[in-house]
Amino acid sequence: VEAAGGVLTVAGQPVELGNIIELHTGVAGMASDAGSRVQFNNGDLLVGDITGLAEGTLTVTQPTFGPLDLKLDQVAQAIFMPGPTVPAEPGTLVQINNRLIPGKLKWIREDNIAIDCSLGLVPLPRTRVRSFVFAPMQGENRATNRVAFADGSVLSGQLAVNDQDLVLTHALLGDLMLDLERVAGITRNLSRILSLAELHGEVVERVGPIPPPSPEVVNGSPGQTLRMFPGTVTRYALPASDQPRRLRGELMPLPGAQASVKVTVRVNGKAKDFRVDPGAEAQAVDLDLGTTAVLEIQVQVDASHALVFPSGIEWRNALIVEAGAS
Q1: What is the pTM of this model?
Q2: Fewer C-beta neighbours within 10 Å, C or N terminus of the chain?
Q3: pLDDT(127) > 90
């Protein structure tokens, strides 16, 4: 994949940006939860070392773009270690054991992070802090283009090809010149094609002696992945449409999964079951959704197996496609 002279070429052939739904460059991408990162209030993820906190500013050293000063009013949360995020109210520090401490973040240093809370000013070893939540997410991000970087970052905005580069105009970071050797993939958001991973589902059930994690989105070299865990039921409200739609994608076990699970997709009172075994190959899903406005997905451990961690499933490149869109 190359960009030069105002033209994007793939395998030596010119391609119009407007004709792309998904483009995988062949560059391997890190999983977006593989390290420390910042989540913007529009849902974008910026991977990097979170090195400091000044008045109204978060300092990040980013592998692709270098040192950055981010305004705190742009940030939903700072995540200091690999792994999934933990839901929490704004103004909450999340410890490694998922304990929540409400308060105000006072500093971020190389070896410790301090919070001003009901116990006073409390410095904590950096290795004990999972994240700090600054603000809630601001609803669904329906940006036209989303770029997944090799470092695991995911940024959205408008794309254009100038004389030398592919340029992403990001609402918070401005114009970013993209080195395609550091880009894993590009996804365009079209009104007639919805990404399941980008829809904001409501977790209506979490069952288990330890409540399972909520579904999480991970970006990496296979493309966009939605992870779901046993004991959850997630409900999606789909935008209104008078055209029939289909759910298409791949379903496979979570890496290292130890138990078989059953995935049930419910549409218009009808249910379709999929069994996902540890180590199994990806299975293609192509399911008629009709014109339904509600989609429900349940994940549960197979009745013949005990719940063993890790367990769960991945939806890879799962799209809800309106008739005539592909």
Answers
A1: 0.67
A2: C
A3: yes
